Amino acid sequence: VQLQASGGGLVQAGGSLRLSCGASGRTLNPYTMGWFRQAPGKEQEFVAAISWSGGSTYYADSVKGRFTISRDKAKNTVFLQMNSLKPEDTAVYYCAAAPILWVTSTPRQYVDWGQGTQVTVSS
User: Fold this and answer.
1) For residues 25-53, average pLDDT
2) pLDDT at position 96, please?
3) Cα–Cα distances in Å, from 44 out to 12, 25, 72?
4) Nearest 10 degrees: CA dihedral of 19, 52, 96, 21?
5) Confidence of residue 29 (pLDDT cuts 50, 70, 90)
6) CA 85 and chain centroid, separation
7) What pLDDT score does 80 carry?
8) Which residues contact residue 71 at a Cβ distance below 8 angstroms, ignoring those fewer than 6 apart?
9) Residue 13 CB neighbour total at 10 angstroms
10) pLDDT at site 74
11) Cα 66 to the chain's mean position, in Å?
12) Coil/strand/helix, residue 37
């Protein structure tokens, strides 16, 4: 499946952004979908994941309570609503698809990756 992430941009601290991840080539069902990010000079970091049904979600502690992952099966799209953004959230955000039914933060379980969208949070 080909993934396309969008919605990144420049926002002030405390602001919000909504990332979208659209898929083409095949349906995202029954894939688990995840968001990861990578800041300059840092390792890739798990952000959030949602199961194929949407019934299970999993968040990194650093974003819990501020970010919400959701999916629209009919539109074959996954979203990441990011609120109360902090400068440390600045990174390139990637969406990814894993052919499993449970949520996971393990990158190697994700087989398809989008190209990334830049999120920059100014202080």
Assistant:
1) 92
2) 97
3) 23, 26, 26
4) -30
5) confident
6) 14
7) 98
8) 28, 33, 50, 54, 77, 78, 79
9) 13
10) 86
11) 13
12) strand
pLDDT digits (tens, 9 = 90+) for 2-16: 999 999 999 999 999
Q: What is the pLDDT of residues 49-100, one digit of tens each?
A: 999 888 999 999 999 999 999 999 888 899 999 999 999 999 999 999 999 9
Write the DSSP assignment of 60-101 as a string of letters.
Answer: -TTTTTTEEEEEETTTTEEEEEE-S--GGG-EEEEEEEESSS
Identity of the amino acid at 77: T
- Do 105 and 61 form a contact (C-beta atoms < 8 A)? no
Between the alpha carbon of residue 123 and those of residues 15, 68, 94, 115, the distances in Å are 11, 22, 23, 26
Distance between CA 45 and CA 78 in Å, rounded?
18
1, with CB counted inside 10 A (0-12, 13-18, 19+), is middle
Residue closest to 114 by CA, chosen among 92, 91, 83? 92
Q: Which two tokens stand for residue 50?
A: 């949602």
Average pLDDT, integer, range 39-55: 94
